[in-house]
Amino acid sequence: MSDLAASYSLMTTRTLLRAASITKSFAGVHALKGVSFDLVEGEVHALIGENGAGKSTFTRIVTGALSPDSGELRIRGHLVTRNTPEHARSLGVAAIYQQPLLFPHLTVAENIAMFLESSATWRVNWKSRYSQARELLLRLGTNLDPRRLASSLSMAEQQIVEIAKAIGSNATILFMDEPTALLGEREVENLFRLVRQLRGEGVGIVYISHRLEEIQAIADRITVLRDGSTITCREAASVDRRDLIELMVGRSLASIFPKRDVPVRETALKVEGLSNPALGLQNVSFAVKRGEILGFAGLVGSGRTEVARTLFGLSPAASTIELFETPVRITSPAQAIRLGIGYLPEDRRQHGLIQEMAISENISMANLREVSHRGLIERSKEEDQGQSYIRDLHIKASGPSVAARTLSGGNQQKVALARWLAIHPRLMILDEPTQGVDVGSKAEIHELIVQMAERGVAVILISSELPEILGMCDRIAVFRGRTIVGTLTRGEATQAKIMALAFGHPNALCGEALQQ
Ligand SMILES: Nc1ncnc2c1ncn2[C@@H]1O[C@H](COP(=O)(O)OP(=O)(O)OP(=O)(O)O)[C@@H](O)[C@H]1O
């Protein structure tokens, strides 16, 4: 028996979950070829792997959303032969996903109650619903109002409600699939504090993330999946970031942030005193040149995404901006696209891909002219275009005609990016472009961004990952309170300076102040 098999065959009283040789195929795609994994009480066990390695499929099998083709699954000592979401929940399994799944027209308290109360509870005790919700949210270190409608919450706030739901159900086995993807630094710290607290209470946490710094900060053990198989399980303290990357991709990676110096050309976009009362934006001023990558840093809700939405015409501003020396007032996304503006949004479920449509249709959507002849879409042209992006962006898919929903999260992100590359933008706004993307693909997306800059595209890069912002950008505009509070050049920017500006530390107003 191999060391790996031996370690998985040991089942102690502290073992919460044990999966052995799990396999799963989808119409010819071998998603899991033999996954073994175990989780003990009071540990954070990270599950990592490239996009498409099988992490979500494994999660869905343990949470009862999918049945495995073969293999053995034991949850808290029970051999699970026919799993369902209800059964998994009754055994103490809960999961939090990267994309919150709240009912938008219900309040925070109602969303939590819907999840925790049985449908047989007809008499609604509003007072206890609200106090229960408030108590859970306070445990998470937030004073979010339980009476707020879910539709009014930011992505980070929605994620916090998801976590409150899981915690409220007293889960002892908690899957967290990219839980920090939509959170800012402060929320991540809050979450980690809570994860440690839960671990101390004996909860076992399966932590899935592409952010290796996070894995190293929070995990006790790490299991690496590659192409649907378990490659290794290690003590977190015994491996470094480079080891993890090599174990995940099966090769070594030279550089994660490959920013090359690109000559900066004339001004592409000049924004002066931009306000958008509907989004709370006030007096935002900045400029970005062709060939330049301008970073937008700041906490979630600080105004970064709101500026992007305004520039793309999703929520029009009252005033004009100057695009390639021409004053324009952008009132719709269609107009923005005609003017050469591409926008990869942060929330790809809402504004990103159409899940039932083919990869090629999703890619051609914003520039149908390129694949049409005399007003009619030529499917073969569309598929050729899809195939070339599948090749260039290393999208893991069997072909351009498969539905977007069959792709793993990271590969969907690449399809969303391809859509905007296909419009040949002059100004590209990328909101968290590498969110949920594995390290290898991340390096590829960074390379694509640099190539865009080399072709003279002006790029605005919004990211909550400071190493990404510092590694990729020529200048960094820092947001706080829905305006820009300062910009830093590549040379002067440090993580500490950006954080100080973002949090409003009085001694940290370095860099050129934009609000003069
Ligand atoms: N419903 C489905 N139909 C067809 N193929 C699927 C389906 N669900 C998953 N797959 C395939 O199974 C493989 C594993 O996908 P999975 O989503 O588990 O990967 P992952 O490790 O979670 O990736 P990511 O990090 O991108 O989220 C991928 O090749 C994916 O395309």
Bound molecule kinds, no repeats: adenosine-5'-triphosphate
Question: How many strand elements?
Answer: 22
Number of helical regions:
18
Instruction: Estimate percent helicity.
Output: 25-40%
The percent range for strand residues is 15-25%
Task: Indicate how many domains the architecture comprises.
Answer: 2
- The first-level CATH class name of the largest domain: Alpha Beta
In terms of structural class, how would the helical and strand content be classed?
alpha/beta
CATH fold-level assignment of the largest domain:
Rossmann fold
How many strands, which pairing sense, and closed or not: the largest β-sheet? 6 strands, mixed
Distance between the termini: 70 Å
Poorly predicted spans: 1-11, 506-516
**Strand order of the biggest β-sheet:** 6-7-8-3-9-10
**In the CATH classification, which architecture of the largest domain applies?**
3-Layer(aba) Sandwich
Average pLDDT across residues? 85
Overall outline: globular
Radius of gyration, whole Å: 23 Å
